[in-house]
Design brief:
Structural class: mainly alpha
Helix content: 55-70%
Number of strands: 0
Shape: elongated
Order of helices and strands: HHH
Distance between the termini: 73 Å
Number of helices: 3
Largest sheet: none
Strand content: under 5%
Length: 107
Amino acid sequence: MDTAERPGSRAQDPAQGPATPDGPADDRAATGGIAADRLRSIIERVERLEEERRALSSDIKDIFAEAKSAGFDVKVIRQIIRIRKQEPAEVEEQETLLDIYRRALGM
């Protein structure tokens, strides 16, 4: 089975010229037909997003520190954030069950 017949592979464009031992004719590596530039781009995009995520995590940590210094209970703030992410019906069901359980325990 040649390269053109393999699933997921691209046949070489004759207009691009043949790949040489020194380098590919286009963005594919000389071995395996891997699109090296495309792969590099994907990896770099993920790395940039991971860096942004680290920066955002640091910003969130700073906000919680600010809330704590202002006298707010960070644990309660986190709980409110978690509740706000839920559907209203789900929150209501959980609150109902919590109330039933508390009454059952005499709380």
